Amino acid sequence: MEFDRRIDEKQIQVWRRHFHAHPELSFEEFDTSDYIAAQLSGMGYDVRRNVGGTGVVATLDTGRPGPAIAFRADMDALPVLEETGLPFESENTGIMHACGHDCHMSILLGAAQSVSQSKEKYCGTLRFIFQPGEEANGGAKCVIHDGALKNPEISAIFALHMIPEIPAGAIGIKPGYMTATDDEFVIRVQGKGAHSSEPETGVNAIMIAAHTVTALDSILSNNVGPFDVATFSICQISGGEAINVIPDHVEMKGMIRCVEKASKEEIRKRMARIVENTAEGFGGKGEVEFIPGFPAVNNDPDLTRIVMEAASEVLPEGKDGVFEIARPHLGSEDFAYYQEEIPGAIFMLGCAQENGVTGTLHSGELNINEEALKWGAAIYVKIADMICGNPIND
pLDDT of 193-222, one tens digit each? Predict the structure, then answer.
């Protein structure tokens, strides 16, 4: 299988190393935005700046009737200290592209470059969205609200995410749910302070919290079906300031992760009831605050088939390089917001090192295999060919 010669893999690597050395946090991607806009303008695109904050949107209107599709990459880095020792490691101490967004941007630039150099091959509209603030739970919504899917109306959107558990030259994907919907929660328990020598005059908030934690443990076993995917975790507890004073308040924080929205609603309802009733039973008060996270990524089946076919045609192992993921991952991804507006599909792009340590996402040791970059760009270009290919040039 001959590699698509339209893909400039060396240039994609140059872009990736530039982004990796100059990471910026969510909604602070000012230099990144400038750099991307300059590259796209040089390719001849109609470039729109400051979309949803620092976002960049490039559009190719072929002037020929046809579908309008989009590809999306996220731009932000994480507050992580890099520990790779790479010659192009982060120059911004304490900030790192530890989730692979440097790769996402360079891959999308590579696809945009290929499309721009063969405009006559396409009909309809192709759009390339560089989105800020994915890690901050808001970037996708800001870009959407700022019209990234309008003028013309985009009918389908695609994205990818690096995954160190799969070798370079392979992808993982599945139709339907790919990731979880997640909520943060804060449980506040109010008791009554007292000296430890007179416990009968107070209401120990720690005692209420302990019984609440035990009661909350029953939710998944009793209220979520055995075939549904859900997790419930209390990850932080704080309360009390002295060893001889019964505390009057305790705060607990954690996460709910589910695939089905109905499961999340049931967990929320049961949590509120348990927290309030347990506290009341001990003479105190309890409340829960929920901070909504991303919805679940839900891949459109038809678009998923297109991704799988495109990957099968360009990957070195063909169909053997396309792994259908068995069950959703309980991480989250704000690409789901696009899918609430239009059909979309995201796939996992393998980036494991052949001989060496790849590390994990969100770690300071993440060191992706740059061989993956060309395959991501090639899949994007093949998708563009399949959907927006100009039949006159076939």
Answer: 999 999 999 999 999 999 999 999 898 888
Residue 392 and residue 394: Cα distance in Å, rounded?
6
C-alpha 121/C-alpha 148 separation (Å) is 24
CA–CA distance, 155 with 69 (Å, rounded to integer): 6
Q: What angle do CA 7, 381, 356 make, to 5 degrees?
A: 60
- Residue 226's pLDDT band (boundaries 50, 70, 90)? confident
Q: Which long-range contacts (CB under 8 A, 24 or more apart) does 225-228 make?
A: 225/263, 228/258, 228/259, 228/260, 228/263
In whole angstroms, what is the distance from residue 218 CA to residue 203 CA? 24
Q: Pairing mode, if any, of strands 125-131 and 285-292?
A: unpaired
Contacts of 163 (CB under 8 A, 6+ apart): 172, 348, 349, 350, 351, 361
Cα separation, 334 vs 293, whole angstroms:
9
Determine contact, residues 175/280, Cβ cutoff 8 Å.
Answer: no
Tell me the pTM. 0.90
The Cβ of residue 239 has, within 10 Å, a number of other Cβ atoms equal to 17
CB 14 within 8 A of CB 102: no
Rg (CA), the chain: 24
Distances (CA, A) of 210 to 50, 115, 193, 204, 333: 48, 59, 17, 10, 33
Supply the mean pLDDT for the chain.
94
The gap between the terminal CA atoms of the chain, to the nearest Å, is 19
Under 8 Å between Cβ of 37 and 111 = no
**What is the sign, positive or negative, of the torsion defined by CA atoms of 393, 114, 111, 142?**
negative
